[in-house]
Amino acid sequence: MADIEATKSLTGLLNGIAQKAYYNNAEITEELLKTELYPDLSQEDFNALHERMKGLLKSIAMADMDHGQLEAFLTAQMKKQGGGGMSEAQAAALSRFWKSQRARVRERLVAQSRWETGLRGLTWRVDLQTSSSRGQEAAQSGPVALLELELGCPSQDSEYVCLECDEPTVNQVLKKMADIQRSIDAVVHRS
């Protein structure tokens, strides 16, 4: 029963560390984690455990470890001598935590590392123009592609850019995209 409680507390600690470090949750503090999860542990022992788990989680996250890498890393940590190692229960809790949170943590790390605007979304449709505001003949007008690009950084609201392309422009864009794809394929197949 004590092992189950220790595993729950460690899982809670790992979740708290992730909330603070990767999800910017300011409500999570070391004091809160200690009082809620480890009330009987001395402050010194809690600080040591917190820093060790924080360091391990940072190492795992920065390397974006897959299952095999994680198992090798945790095995090496369990074999460490001199109090720097971890128990099997701690390794199992860390492994379970990482398996469930890997994608979310990676997504947050990628989002935090971007400082420039990125493409968030794209919508498009094809319309038929029947006349032009410039007085052109209806016979000259044809189908147009209307593209709406949603641009933004993770920390700000989106901006929208609208583009209108006629059929030759769409064909030119498609040709350029095909050229880019061929270039990527050539590089990938060379490696």
From TrEMBL:
UniProt cross-references to Pfam families, sorted A to Z: COMM_domain, COMMD1_N
One example of a Gene Ontology biological process annotation: regulation of proteasomal ubiquitin-dependent protein catabolic process
Residues annotated as transmembrane: none
A GO cellular-component term linked to this record: endosome
Domain COMM: 118-188
Family membership noted in the UniProt record: Belongs to the COMM domain-containing protein 1 family.
Name of the protein in question: COMM domain-containing protein 1
Organism whose genome encodes this protein: Merluccius polli
